[in-house]
Amino acid sequence: MMQKIRIGSRASFLALAQTKSISKQLEAIFPEILWEIIPVKTEGDISSQVPLAEIGGEGVFVKQLEHLLLKGEIDMAVHSMKDLPSSLPEGLEIAAVPQRVNPCDVLVSCQGVHLDDLPFQAVIGTGSLRRKAQILYHRKDFEIKGIRGNIDTRIKKLKPGEIDAIVLAYAGLYRLGMKDKISYILPHEICLPAVGQGALCLQARAGDSKLIQKLQTLHHQESSWSINAERSFLKRLGGGCHVPIAALAEIKNQQLHLRGLVAHREGEKIIRSYVLGDPQQAEDMGKQLADQLLLSGAEQLLKE
Prior knowledge:
The chain has helices at residues 13-29, 43-46, 63-71, 129-138, 151-156, 170-175, 209-215, 221-237, 282-303; strands at residues 3-10, 33-40, 76-80, 92-96, 105-109, 123-125, 143-145, 165-169, 184-185, 200-205, 245-252, 255-263, 270-277. By secondary structure, the chain is α/β, with parallel strands linked by helices. It folds into three domains: 1-98 and 199-219, Periplasmic binding protein-like II (D-Maltodextrin-Binding Protein, domain 2), CATH 3.40.190; 105-185, 3-Layer(aba) Sandwich (D-Maltodextrin-Binding Protein, domain 2), CATH 3.40.190.10; 220-304, 2-Layer Sandwich (Double Stranded RNA Binding Domain).
């Protein structure tokens, strides 16, 4: 009888596309195993019209999957790394981090124009406080309108004079084969990404060594170092969906470059910092960067 491994996934179109990609890779390596995808509606999916900060923010897309994993109703879960809280429940671990794709944010606009070509007081749609704060810091005249829902739903809301542009993650459009919708890739100087953006997490029960060994075949060490640095940074700051926090770690010439920021919710102020070091010290670098920001005044923004 063929062994079956049950993969839990959010039931959204993007999440299922991501999970199918992972299952196909695993199937190619372990064809003797049936990799079955179990779609799960999470709290964040059910409350798709409510701002994330109002329904608890951190963990709303992963808690249900983690609960099923701990109960043994699924064997592993595939998450978007940016949805994963900085602390994991006891009994679960990150088994593998596949290679990250471009973590940038992008603009999708009605006329296909760049950010600075949008008209005065243009309306930009996003449900992210992080994106809102950075875009308003760049141009105070923009009006930010909160929108949620899957990518197709958000793109359909584009209408000149109502919503002139929306901001999305490059990774989502790439994974859905919708790169042609991108009007402009936002530079990191304008919009630094969310912690873990563009990366996936393969989560398993701690101690499930046989499955973890299999999942490790998809592990990408450089992506993992980068994610560890960013998640350590976020954990030290103690922020979630309620505070505009951004970070990006990149490995260049065998050095880990980590930049991060904390912003005022309305974009009135942004505090940035940067560290450079050994990728194997990724977690310590994340803490170091957070401490630098706290000393530079980020603590007050976090309190506000």
